[in-house]
Amino acid sequence: MLHLLGAVALVAIVSTSPEVAAFPLSLSSFAASANRLVARADAVYSPPVYPTPETRATGDWTVAVNKAKAELSTWTLAERAALATGDLWQPPGLCVGNVKPIASTGFPGLCLQDAPVGVRVADLVSAFPSGVNVAATFDRTLMFSRGLAMGNEFKGKGVNIALGPGMNPARTAEGGRNWEGFGADPYLQGEAAYQTITGMQASGVQATAKHFIGNEEEHLRIESSSNIDDRTLHEIYLHPFLRSVQANVANVMTAYNQINGSWAAQNSKLNNGILKGELGFSGTVMSDWAGARSGLASALGGLDMNMPGVPNWLTFDGTSYWGVDNLLKMVSNGSMPESRVTDMATRILSSWYLLGQDVDFPATNFNGWDLTDEATNQHVNVQDDHYKLIRQMGSSATVLLKNTNNALPLKNPKSLLVIGDDAFPSSKNGDPNFYTYRGGNDGTLAVGWGSGANDFPYLVDPLSAIIARSASLKTNVTSSRNNFDLAAAGALAGGKDAALVFINSNSGEAVSIVDGNDGDRNNISAWGGGDQLVLAVAAKNKNTIVIVHSVGVMDTELWIDHPNVTAVVWAGLPGQESGNSCADVLFGDVNPSGRLPYTIAKDQSHYVHATPLSNTESHPQVTYSEKLNVDYRHFAANNLKPRFPFGFGLSYTKFSYSGLSIKTLSLTSAQTTDLHAPKYTVNFTVQNCGSVSGEDVPQLYLTFPSSASEPPRVLRGFTKVSLAAGKSVSVSLALSTYDLSIWDVVKQKWVKPSGTFKVVVATDALAAASLSGSI
Ligand code: NOJ
Questions:
Q1: Atom 9 (ligand 1) nearest CA
Q2: Active site residues
Q3: Is the pLDDT of residue 427 over 50?
């Protein structure tokens, strides 16, 4: 029996039909697919790997797994089975996913809630910067702090399992959920995932690494097969999940798509073989919502928790592929060993014990299905002073892409034009689901749409922040939110000291079609006629400064070389303090130190493109034919010049690097056999040789011996340093054998190729080496 110190009160709620629920997943988009669930037998192959490895009491999980095993030894099979299925995605559960309390055991149940940017469909919570901005900070301390702050908010609301972070790399230019993850490079994704999870779980909330795996685009995501070869899978897409497992992530959510022809939730090679086998994952494998396409096959294929329990988005009749009855039937008819059910329960309960949720965990105190129901909403304010961190991260993630003749920071301008809808508040503020299911671009863009978003407590728009910041300077600020009256825009721009043009580009999850975009963008041009607005303003103002809020790459070619476009500020999706973060950089209160977490091309044919909206195939085969050459690796491999490479970002000061030395560490025999133990350190000095203080991001890239057939450069280290003018600091970046290895598909293990590795310290992925050495 469990002895709980905190009681959970569940209050009956009048049933809400799914169509009007607070999680308005577009049923029509699922309906369209429901008849086409037949997998193709012909295309590709994912080998069977059975049985599911049982979780083991090792490392940091030892105590938790032992506790779970001891506790479960007193439970009946039916009680164990009850942990594994959600309550069918409807009230009386209060969250987007719920495991019901099991009264006979004293287990209080579980609340699972989005989103990766803060608690979703809840009041009095913060809206944090999106994953793509987290990546752009290149700052591990901020990554950790955000995870911790978000975790505290989830815990304060009584959420056991936060459904994030997302870590699918930005493989395609248009990928709708690129902004939820941490950019286009697996190493950067991995570091941000590790810090986010470590921070979040330090609060006592279970994190969820998602979506495992190959969910890099949205249109037809529940139909398609991501066909990824073994080496590419290991070196690019698996790496962030490896780092998540190293951070002791409690849950991994499977994707909707197939991988190599087998649905993610039942892909035994991935779940049994790679995740639980190779990576030794001890926690819970949960499905994405209605992402389990079968009962027995997913149970044997390594799924531990079926969320939210419904068989598909059309069936809300109380049936499930799982549920206690079906799981027991699978055992009693001999299709599945009882030990599989026990292992599902062991994993779920181990995750709960690992985070200490058996002691004093708050009961869920909000109702994600109805925020107005006073019986179930206690309106607990969990925001603390997180706005400070959010503001800091917003400016720290801001990437200065162009700054001709030090146009920025602004120097006591007498007159400013602020123009573009993106500088203004949303006219839809107050609509509870607006930011989650954004009905279109309206006002400044601070998050994309879908389950990756949450509802903002407020959103500081850039215009208000600029007016407030420039008040003491007595600057005359003129503004217009009209993107389309180009003659008026030009007329307003003339004669101003500077014209600030705000433009944006949005995308989201394929649960809503926004302005014709089914999650993925139909193109990567600025929304709302932004490019023409820039050109109209630049035609009349010699100091035109463009500020971009974007979910990812955006085409800048129409105006980037315009001589009157003097500065470009890439602000991403900063969260609730957006305007303040932007003003901090524009006026020089913060020296920008963000770096691009993806490459912006000059030529759109240099991108990998997502499956177009025009594709209506039943099961499109999305072949990852670029293999290892994702993002900057493709440009480097093919000698292509992008507009702005991965890792690029300017500062108001200058930095120099000197004195590279590479040291081989003396290791104990245990360290020698540990693939991940630091084996070398790369040491050098960074100096701020400009006249103002600032932060820099030195980056370490490796060039493998040619026999390895790796892309010419791969990121294997970075740090963020803060330096007053004239000061310098020593930096030491560690490399492990894993960092110097490739996945050998024949040997099925990591192998360090023989030969010389070139070590490059550079300011971005394609820049000439500032320092170089060899190993
Ligand atoms: C579907 C999304 O793909 C997933 O990321 C999210 O956590 C669940 N819905 C629950 O909202």
A1: 289
A2: 288
A3: yes
Ligand 1 center to 741 CA (angstroms): 34
The pTM for the full model equals 0.94
| Ligand 1 site residues, Cβ closer than 6 angstroms | 96, 114, 163, 210, 288-289, 451
Average pLDDT over residues 466-491: 97
Strands 544-550 and 565-570: parallel
Specify the pLDDT at position 108.
Answer: 98
Contact by Cβ (8 Å): 215, 291: no
Nearest 5°: the CA angle 526, 527, 529 is 85
Q: Which atom of ligand 1 is nearest to the CA of 163?
A: 7
* Residue in the structure block whose two tokens are 């070590």: 759
Name the closest-CA residue to atom 10, ligand 1: 289
DSSP state of 605: G
Confidence label for 315 from pLDDT (cuts 50, 70 and 90): confident
Instruction: Find out whether 738 and 752 touch, Cβ atoms under 8 Å.
Output: no
How many other CB atoms are there within 10 angstroms of residue 440's CB atom? 14
Cα angle 165-580-486, degrees, rounded to a multiple of 5: 100
- Which residues does 50 contact at the CB level (< 8 Å), separation at least 6? 268, 272, 300
CA separation for the pair 333, 315 (Å, rounded): 26
Taking the centre of ligand 1 as the mean of its atom positions, its distance from the CA of residue 317, in whole angstroms, is 21
Q: Please choose from 29, 98, 114, 178 the residue to mutate so as to test ligand 1's pocket, defined by most ligand atoms within 8 A of CB.
A: 114
- Provide the pLDDT for residue 435: 57
Tokens for 621, please give them.
């085969």
Residue type for 732, please?
A: S
Q: Whose CA is nearest to atom 6 of ligand 1?
A: 451
Mean pLDDT of 133-150: 98
For atom 11 of ligand 1, the residue with the nearest CA is 451
Q: Which residues, at least 6 apart from 82, have a Cβ–Cβ distance to it below 8 Å?
A: 99, 100, 102, 324
Helix (H) / strand (E) element for 548: namely: strand 544-550
Q: Which atom of ligand 1 is nearest to the CA of 308?
A: 10
- pLDDT band at residue 670 under the 50/70/90 scheme: confident
User: Is it the case that residue 38 has pLDDT exceeding 90?
Assistant: no
